[in-house]
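Page 42, continued from yesterday. The earlier attempt failed because a stray header line got pasted into the input along with the sequence. Redoing it now with the clean sequence only.
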Amino acid sequence: MVHTEQRLRRRRQATLVLLGLLGISTVLALAMGSVSLPPATVWKALTGGEVPQHLALIIHSIRIPRALLAASVGAILAVCGAILQGLFRNPLADPSLIGVTAGASVGASLMIMFGAGLGAALGGVAGLSLISLGAFSGGLLAVWLVYRVATSVNGTSVATMLLMGIAVSALAASATGLLDYVADNEMLRRMSLWRMGGLEGANFPRAGLAAALLLLLLVALPAFGRALNTLLLGESQARHLGIDVERLKTRLILLVAAGVGLSVAVSGSIAFVGLVVPHMVRLWVGPDHRVLLPLCALGGAVLLLLADVLARTVMAPAELPVGLITALLGAPFFISLLRHRRREGSE
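This time it went through. Structure tokens are written below.
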């Protein structure tokens, strides 16, 4: 009984803290950048008050869609990371394990090299650039290949899926390296910047797509939380408890492929969000996916919003790729978490 009360209290505390941080990070994302704005000005612009036209344009046309895109992409990556960690029953799994990020890199690189003749953007396709569409297609193709090889008449093997994901990622890395080798200087720079991740191309259509997919994930989460909890016991035990394991795997892989594929398409490759956030939240509230998944959405949104604020302000007016910021913040923090866990295990 005492443990149950402590667990409930910890969950309430985590929810309140993450909601507060989400509000703070959103305000910072709207107020800070190459042009810093006081919160009062941001509030007036949001509520229809009188604000100089150029400042209103900055807030409404640039910072609001960018903040919405950052929050949506961060939440999607964190939720997809938590889903894969539950599916693989490994807290160190992340979305890149199934090859979607590597496949998206190949698709984007191909479009940068060979898609210039078709135009820099396809404005009629939800505002997505040709590079984004190539990245999304490449990511889905890589996941399809991984899933196809891992699935047989006996079902889908998680171990085979993991190994095939590593193989597809290695193959994609070789293809990307070959494209880098034959690209000219301008193309090479565009490829490198895309792989570092960035939100500078944010607009309302892109943000709306990411937000719609996030909403789909959030609606689907209650149906998968209990199933993922049961899957932690093992596949045979889950089957005995009435879970259709193969159907569950298929649905989860489709959701993760769509989520990560779209995220990489609209923002490039952003590292560590899908690995660090679920790990941190799990240490805080425990492994119950019914609680873990929605809290990961909040944590991922907060992390990417704050990382984007740093990317826009550290070297203002220049802008750093947000993927570099998440890696610089996430890698040392994750190493410290692992060292702490190892120290606790040895005591």
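Notes: Confidence is low (pLDDT under 50) at residues 120-124.
Reminder to self: strip header lines before submitting.
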